[in-house]
Amino acid sequence: MLEVLSKDEINRYARKTGFVKIDSALDGVTFLKLLFHNSEKEKNMSLNLMRTGVVNDAGKHLSKQALDARFSKKSILFIKTIFEAYLQKMSLAMDAKNDRGWMDLFDRVLVKDGTRFDLPEAFAPYFKGFGGKCTSNSAICIQLEYDLKTGTIAEFKLTSANIPDCKDAQLTMDDIQTGDLILRDLGYSALNIFEATITKKAFFISKLNTQIAVFELKRGKYIPLDFKKLYKKMEQSACKTIELEVFIGKDKKIPTRLVLEPTPQEVYEERIRKNKKENLKKGCQMRAEYGHRQRFNCYITNIEKGILPPLAIRNIYRLRWQIELVFKQCKSTYHIDKTHKMKYERWITLFYARLLLILIHWQLYHITQTAKYNTENKLLSLAKCFISLQSKANKITALVGKHTAKIKETIQELISFIATGHDLETKKGKQSQQQIIDIIYCISK
After folding, report:
1. Are residues 29 and 58 in the same domain?
2. CA 312 to CA 443: how far, in whole Å?
3. 198 and 58 assigned to the same domain
């Protein structure tokens, strides 16, 4: 599983990228161990501390200046090549699936999102930010998409923060496969993406963007959906959920199912407050139609009604929040958003190493969870597992340059460690991830 950390593999990547041994104090293996040792810490280590680590590990003298010089374009290519090789091998290895309940209807259940954070201004030539008074001119975005059934990562890339999510979604439309179910938030909504999904015989569940026109077909004519009238009707009948067959898009008129549920009054008022605040900054006014739409949570899908009823559509969409939990742990446990002033080559090299450690922990988590769910019908807590694995990150560092047998032994030890005492707990009054997965909504295939 982790053969990319073996001595032979590391040396091969060192030769391939030009990061060859210059002195006996810092060859590829020692350098990678040093990067992982830094990833164990909350903040990036100083050059002096890193230099001390090299001396202790290799027993050789290395000056601060010599270490700084090793952070270069070659070090970036070296760690990036290892990262990409691991990502590819990880995808091939994670073939165990969760096919319980409704998940059996789809080949993949893909969730996608991005997380952004500011970087030092000096990094603006590499990653552009939004600028302005409150944000940096340099910021990074991590675009992540993965399969809920296997944990396989379909996309993992770094972009400038000022690139809209919708643009990224359009650039990756060719990656959609027949039988996929795609769960994405409003930022990735675009009519051509929905159209491409339908064309490829794949499926989507998405929130409805307020900018997208919605029509009903009545007596052969497309009539704009009256959200104000619809809300009054549901309020009078105390209806909690309603489903309509509609067409979205002013020009294309794409047929979809629309599932609506009224929001609590306090949620509606908060949405209106936020919108007025944004409009005040932009010097514009809120459209009346927008206000009426804020009365609802609106979900759209192309999954047939006979396959999944309205309640299922709403609940399945909630699983998209799993990716938010991933990003939350990346920041709170691995501190990917914490940095201080340093040259770019050093920062990005250390950043890729930290991401590589997260990938390793990610694979351990999903392999253990799939096995536990299939045998004990229990899911693991991502937060608990990541925190515990990070506390033992030194074990991964110790594996760098070891033989395959030793690597497998340690990996099995870590899997056994998180298999016990890391179960996902159900919060009172809330439907858990496991409950959403376990319920068999399928009426007819």
Report:
1. yes
2. 11
3. no
118: left (phi over 0), alpha (psi -120 to 50) or beta: beta
H/E stretch holding 332: helix 321-332
- Tell me the residue range of the domain where 184 lies: 94-262+294-325
SS3 content of the chain, % helix, strand, coil (to 5): 50, 15, 35
Residue with tokens 């990716």: 323
Same domain, 255 and 312: yes
Domain assignment present for residue 335? The answer is: no
- Helix or strand run (H / E) with residue 54: helix 47-58
- DSSP, collapsed to helix, strand or coil, labels residue 344 as helix
- In angstroms, the CA 1 to CA 367 distance is 11
Question: Which residue is listed with tokens 């997380």?
Answer: 115
Tokens of 46: 């100083």
How far, in Å, CA of 4 to CA of 81, rounded? Answer: 10
132 and 215 assigned to the same domain:
yes
Question: Would you give the DSSP letter of residue 7?
Answer: H
In a domain, 267, yes or no: no
User: Could you tell me if 73 and 100 lie in one domain?
Assistant: no
Name the token pair of 358.
């997260």
Position 186, amino acid? L
Burial of 160 by CB count in 10 Å (0-12 exposed, 13-18 middle, 19+ buried)?
A: middle
**Please, are residues 110 and 136 in contact by the beta-carbon 8 Å criterion?**
no
Walk along the chain (445 residues) and give the pLDDT tens digit of each residue: 567 788 888 888 998 998 875 455 678 888 999 999 999 999 999 998 888 877 666 666 778 898 899 999 999 999 999 999 999 988 877 777 777 778 889 999 999 999 999 999 999 999 999 877 667 899 999 999 999 988 999 999 999 999 999 888 888 888 999 999 999 888 888 899 999 999 999 999 999 988 899 999 999 999 999 999 999 999 888 888 999 999 999 988 999 999 999 999 999 899 888 888 877 776 777 788 888 899 999 999 999 988 888 988 988 998 888 899 999 999 999 999 998 889 999 999 999 999 999 999 999 999 998 888 888 888 899 999 999 999 999 999 998 888 878 888 999 999 999 999 999 887 665 666 666 766 554 444 4
Does one domain contain both 317 and 253? yes
Looking at the structure, tell me whether residues 72 and 214 fall in a common domain: no
CATH number for the domain that contains residue 316: 3.90.350.10
Q: Is residue 258 part of a domain?
A: yes
Question: Does residue 288 sit within a domain?
Answer: no
